[in-house]
Amino acid sequence: MVSQKSVSIDIHIVDMTRNENARPVADEYGVNYTCINSYETDNKIEQVAIARDRGIQKTNGRYVLFLDDDDEIQANGIRMLLEAIESGDCSVAFARKRDLLDPEAIREFYTGENPIDPDTVLEFCLSALAAPYGISGMLAERSAIESLLPMADFPHDDIVPVIELVRSNKVCTIDRELITSRSGYGLSRSVDCKAARMAIVEYYDELYDAYPDTVRKRGLALKHAIGALKCLQQSRWSAHAVRHFWKAVRTNPDGSPYGLVFASLFGRYGLRSYKSRFPSPSGFNWPV
Questions:
Q1: How far apart are CA 115 and CA 109, in angstroms?
Q2: Phi and psi based region of residue 36 (left: phi greater than 0; alpha: psi -120 to 50; beta: remaining)
Q3: Which CA distances in Å does 164 have to 31, 126, 131, 161?
Q4: Cis peptide leading into 257, omega within 30 of 0?
Q5: Bridge partners for 179 per DSSP
Q6: Range from 14-18, 185-189, 242-246 that averages highest in pLDDT
Q7: Nearby residues of 243 by Cβ (< 8 Å), 6 or more positions away
Q8: Which tens digits make up the pLDDT trace of 49-58?
Q9: 12-187 is classed in which CATH architecture?
Q10: Average pLDDT, stretch 71-94?
């Protein structure tokens, strides 16, 4: 962040570690620093949202950019995002990030045709229980972010804020990879994240009504598939996982790979074996 070119920025580190691990970094670079000493929740997803809320409260710039501690932005990244906002008369800008989602699956959301079509993005989010954009590395007008507060009330720290920003603002994208991550999956494979993604279906029950019924069915099928993986993450074998996979297969509008249900009868081992043989079962998308 300190190497950003052609822009004036005010950096504020929000330390989530409770024991001031990041203070030496803040002191070295002479930037603002806040440490969150305690949380009322052990949920890591909620803690991330709380930290972002705190960061907004501590700053006052016209634009806001969140950057996770394991992410890096190119030296000209903020300038490019700002230029995209100004040239497209938009409020929010996203750039590509090497992320969990298949680059081909989200390429259509980085066409450079700005502002983006919100319905296309929302349909994807509701179907995949994922977002083609990430909050870390996004640049947004402060008013757009403040309209979301407190983000800690959302069921998911990344996906839901993206949905809300797309619903209420003109959004632009840059078809360049400006953000790189050093930690791979981070919290995305945690039990907390799986539970948060499952909660999205109920949270947006009314929004689903605005889209074809297949969108809701895909979301429900994925919710159950994620629920099954969550169960098997907590236990080698789970009857709940079998039931979740059964519901996922029955609900999925694009295909019915019943072998998935049979494999789940053998717990983690059966599922691992099935996935190695059928990485893309007909009509079914594995949750990331």
A1: 11
A2: beta
A3: 30, 12, 11, 5
A4: no
A5: 73, 97
A6: 242-246
A7: none
A8: 999 999 999 9
A9: Alpha-Beta Complex (3.90)
A10: 94
Whether the per-residue pLDDT at 281 is higher than 70: the answer is: no
What is the C-alpha to C-alpha distance for residues 190 and 226, in angstroms, rounded to an integer?
11
What does the alpha-carbon distance between residue 265 and residue 206 come to, in Å, rounded to a whole number? Answer: 35
Q: Which residue in the block uniquely carries the two structure tokens 């099928």?
A: 221
Sheet containing strand 139-141, strands side by side: 63-65, 139-141, 92-97, 171-181, 71-73
Q: Cβ of 113: how many Cβ atoms within 10 Å?
A: 12
What tokens does 123 get? 């349909």
3-state class (DSSP) for residue 175: strand
Query: What separation in angstroms does the CA of 266 have from each of 62, 232, 241, 269, 273?
Result: 54, 11, 10, 6, 10
* CB-CB contact of 126 with 108 (8 Å): no
Query: Taking the CA of residue 63 as centre, how many other CA atoms within 13 Å lie in the half-sphere pointing to its CB?
Result: 19
| Model confidence, pTM | 0.93
Q: Three-state secondary structure along 208-230? A: HCCCCHHHHHHHHHHHHHHHHHH
Query: Which residue ranges make up each domain of the chain?
Result: 12-187, 212-277
Give per-residue pLDDT as tens, 32-43: 999 999 999 999
Confidence of residue 283 (pLDDT cuts 50, 70, 90): low
CB 182 within 8 A of CB 76: no
3-state class percentages of the chain: helix first, strand second, coil last, to nearest 5: 50, 10, 40
The distance of Cα 28 from the centroid of its chain, to the nearest Å, equals 31
Confidence of residue 74 (pLDDT cuts 50, 70, 90): very high
Q: What CA–CA distance (Å, rounded) separates 162 from 62?
A: 19
pLDDT at 143 over 90: yes
Q: Please name which of 133, 129, 104, 105 lies closest in space to residue 118, comparing C-alpha atoms.
A: 133
